[in-house]
Amino acid sequence: MNKYISFTVCYLIFGALSFIIAGCGGDKDPANPPTHKVQVYVTKSTDVHIFREFVGETLGDSNVDIAARVQGFLETRHFEEGSFVKKGQLLYTIESQPFEEKVAQSQSQLAAAQINLANAKSDLSRIQPLAAENAISQIDLDAAQARYEASIESVKAAQAGFRAAELELSYTKVYSPIDGVIGKSRASEGDFVGASPTTVVLTTVSYIDTIAVQFYLTQTEYLEAARKIEEETGSGSSKNPHDADDDLVLILSDGVVYKYKGKFDFIDRNFDTETGSILIQSLFPNPNQLLRPGLFAKVRAEVDVVKGGILVPQRCIMELQGKFNVLVVDRENKVESRQVQTGPTVKEFWLIKEGLKPGEKVIYEGLQKVKEGQVVNPEVVDIKIPDLESI
Predict the structure, then answer these.
(1) With contact defined as beta carbons under 8 Å apart, do 314 and 349 qualify?
(2) Cα dihedral across residues 163, 164, 165, 169: positive or negative
């Protein structure tokens, strides 16, 4: 009896479940499967500004190494390291006594030469009238004339030696050749400086009201840029870098964008044969002296403008074996797989060179849930293209 009841209960439960399952699936039509909702991005035509970033290093617009021009012991340092110095400001004093003695000796030699010149001139003046009256021989006159001319040259040589001695004495005082920020002193008081060939650079002064940023281009990058300039100007060499607009952006090592824009300064004359790159220098205003030599930073430059370009969010693009595809929803809401040719990335977008036209719907969300030929229910999402002319 219990077995019969259990069998009856099981039969009733199985029947109820079969009815529920049949009721749930009874409304489905295998020929018309339900459509999936997908988010789509509508392509637009816009001018696409292509930027490229180059890692560079900052330098002062002018950097002057200060070195001793005479040998001697360093007596005094007259500046504070890291301070601002003016052109002509005294920086160092080198022991001057040996050079003062040399000046005194040269001055004495000059005086002796001048006395000899005066005597020779007096002798010549006395002999010339006698020679005119044939009171003395021509040989005596020629000898007096030769002594006089030799005395003149001796005075010139003595004067040159005296000037050289004074010049060497002046080198015992070392002055700043430019306005700028002075670095750490590499010599201390009491050091022997100016010894050749290992001449000691005492310090460096950098003019930093304008800062230079140097970076390198590969041969491919250089040729690409040179051809673009040639197309725009008709000549690759007639364009003066100093006439360029201030359109370079500097990104500091902490990621902050420098508030002043810069411009190209010059391109080096040749490529480095070891690295295969060429040096480019750019200039940036530095009125607050925030930037100092030796900083690493990125220079952001506009390298091209694509007129009427199409940008697609990167998440819309699928890559397989080096080929790029997107899923496009046509006018009948059917999914179509489309191969595209991509260009460079622009922030979170990808530039499409071929394969898409303005106004087409590209699936943005739900790529893995649909397949080609399937009918979908597209929902347009508004994704704003960022300001491509700014950083």
Answers:
(1) yes
(2) positive
CA distance 341 to 119: 97
Can you tell me the distance from the alpha carbon of 282 to that of 258, in angstroms, rounded to the nearest whole number?
Answer: 14
Report CA-CA distances (Å) from 190 to 46, 72, 116, 174: 69, 9, 43, 15
> What is the distance between the alpha carbons of residues 93 and 77, in angstroms, rounded to a whole number?
7
Architecture of the domain made up of 36-50+306-380: Beta Barrel (2.40)
CATH, range 66-204 = 2.40.50.100
pLDDT tens per residue, range 38-54? 999 999 988 888 888 99
Residue 140: both structure tokens together: 């005596």
Higher pLDDT, 236 or 141: 141
What does the pLDDT average to over 146-156?
95
Tell me if 360 sits within 8 A of 42, measured CB to CB: yes
Question: What CATH fold (topology level) applies to the domain 53-61+209-303?
Answer: Elongation Factor Tu (Ef-tu); domain 3 (2.40.30)
**pLDDT band for position 227 (cuts 50, 70, 90):** confident
Q: What is the largest CA-CA distance in the chain?
A: 179
Which spans in the chain are helix H?
Answer: 2-25, 97-132, 138-170, 219-233
Q: Which region among 210-219, 236-245, 310-319 has the lowest average model confidence (pLDDT)?
A: 236-245
Grouping H, G, I as helix, E, B as strand and the rest as coil, residue 173 is: strand
Q: What is the DSSP string of 249-307?
A: EEE-TTSPBPSS-BEEEEEEEEEETTTTEEEEEEEEE-TT----TT-EEEEEEEEEEEE
pLDDT in tens, 98-120: 999 999 999 999 999 999 999 99
